[in-house]
Amino acid sequence: MKPIVVVGAGFAGSVVARELADSGQRVRIIERRPHIAGNAYDELDAHGILVHRYGPHIFHTNGARIFEWLSRFTDWRPYEHRVRAALNGILYPFPINLDTLNKLYGLELNEAGAAEYYEKVREPRARVLTSEDVVLNAVGRDLYEKFFLNYTRKQWGLDPSQLKAGVAARIPIRANTDDRYFTDEFQAMPLNGYTKMFETILDHPRISLELGVAFSKKDHGQNSSHVVYTGPIDAYFDYCFGNLPYRSLRFEHEHHSEVNKFQEVGTVNYPNEHAFTRITEFKHLTGQQHKGTSIVREYPTDIGEPYYPVPRAENESLYKLYQSLASKENNVTFVGRLAQYRYYNMDQVVGAALSAADQLLKKIQ
Ligand code: FAD
Ligand code: UDP
């Protein structure tokens, strides 16, 4: 019996591979990068600091089953991410909360007062369709222009009015003083990093791994009993309907040997200044004790690795064309952020991968 070929060793591919192997299947993973873990890849930099090569990855989920599944392969370090937004050199809590309002406008509101404030300044929308609608409907124009408009233009090269509501809806608006970025029940970082966790997930006698190898339908497809594909869906079909837009980033990593801490929280967003969107300092995320510190700046761009599907109606329509082809490929499973063209967080990819493995096993066993 030929093995199942899994294309990609990120969350989607690795979780499916492990589930299949645990159920007795032989799995051959093909990964075109020289490393495992996909975009969650982390490694020690030249200064001994654990950095995320493809930008900051903070794990959070409300899915107990997802957290339990990953907990088989790693211990955790509790971590709640905090973010500030820099406006004219002053740092404000972000997501916008009671303290943001009071600091920005010199007010002394309490929680009820903040809720009233939002009610007064919001621009109610009968239908909340776009990311512009989401924010204006919640907090009105001034906060929209200060915190969301330019950040979004930078990040996506699009106006918030051109993006689906779900993009800005990722960010809550708060009347209380909670300044955590996420409020999920489980918030933690893999104790020894993501790559180590992936090494354990993939450490199985029925899993073989080939790094630096790009998938070819001819070579790998024909030598498999089934393919699980986690790369970009348009690439699989040779872009027959045209390119699906993905947004990319250029990462500028920098080390500072003269200080132990560069900034007061894990991430500082720069909505209106600079070509980069945010600076992340890894030691906050990892808790690593080390001399010096390492940071990363993210510069959005259209050129380069596909990192973000771009949530717009027209892109959804194009994706649907590819999806209809995908549904006819009986021997191929498409799963993951690129293959499903969804703005998935890591936990959502794990969830999707567990379901995909389940379905595949039902079909073949
Ligand atoms: P990927 O990680 O992209 O893995 C796909 C793999 O397939 C890649 O390694 C690729 O090289 C390989 N591949 C593709 N095509 C081929 C081919 N033809 N042949 C061989 N191999 C191929 N999520 C969170 O939950 N929290 C966060 O804080 C967070 N921060 C993020 C920050 C950034 C800057 C980015 C870009 C993403 C962030 N995410 C975060 C999302 C997270 O990275 C993804 O949800 C997750 O990594 C997707 O896993 P995946 O396996 O679907 O895709
Ligand atoms: N956003 C914004 N200002 C910010 C942070 C986020 O306008 O300071 C918007 C922007 O459109 C961004 C989206 O909210 O793309 C989602 O932000 P998140 O931090 O979840 O993005 P990710 O971590 O996935 O890049």
Briefly characterize the structure.
By secondary structure, the protein is of the alpha/beta class. It has helices spanning 11-22, 64-71, 98-105, 111-121, 131-156, 165-168, 194-202, 217-222, 233-236, 282-286, 313-328, 346-364; strands at residues 4-7, 27-31, 42-44, 50-52, 60-61, 76-78, 83-87, 90-94, 186-190, 207-211, 226-229, 246-256, 267-269, 278-281, 293-301, 308-309, 332-334.
Description:
With 365 residues, the chain is α/β, with parallel strands linked by helices. It contains twelve helices and 17 strands. It has a seven-stranded mixed beta sheet with strand order 8-7-13-14-15-12-16. Helix 1 packs parallel to helix 12 (346-364). It is globular. The two termini are 13 Å apart. Uridine-5'-diphosphate binds at residues 85, 94, 147-148, 151-152, 155, 167-168, 170-171, 269, 271.
Could you give the topology of this structure?
Layout (H helix, E strand, L loop, with lengths): L3 E4 L3 H12 L4 E5 L10 E3 L5 E3 L7 E2 L2 H8 L4 E3 L4 E5 L2 E5 L3 H8 L5 H11 L9 H26 L8 H4 L17 E5 L3 H9 L4 E5 L5 H6 L3 E4 L3 H4 L9 E11 L10 E3 L8 E4 H5 L6 E9 L6 E2 L3 H16 L3 E3 L11 H19 L1
Parallel strand pairs: 1-2, 1-11, 2-10, 7-13, 11-17
Antiparallel strand pairs: 3-4, 5-9, 6-9, 7-8, 12-15, 12-16, 13-14, 14-15
Helix pairs in contact: 1-12
The protein binds flavin-adenine dinucleotide and uridine-5'-diphosphate.
Q: What would you call the structural class?
A: alpha/beta
Oligomer: single chain
Radius of gyration: 22 Å
Low-confidence stretches: none
* Major sheet size, sense and barrel closure: 7 strands, mixed
The shape is globular
Number of strands: 17
Give the SSE order as H and E letters. Answer: EHEEEEHEEEHHHHEHEHEHEEEHEEHEH
Strand content: 15-25%
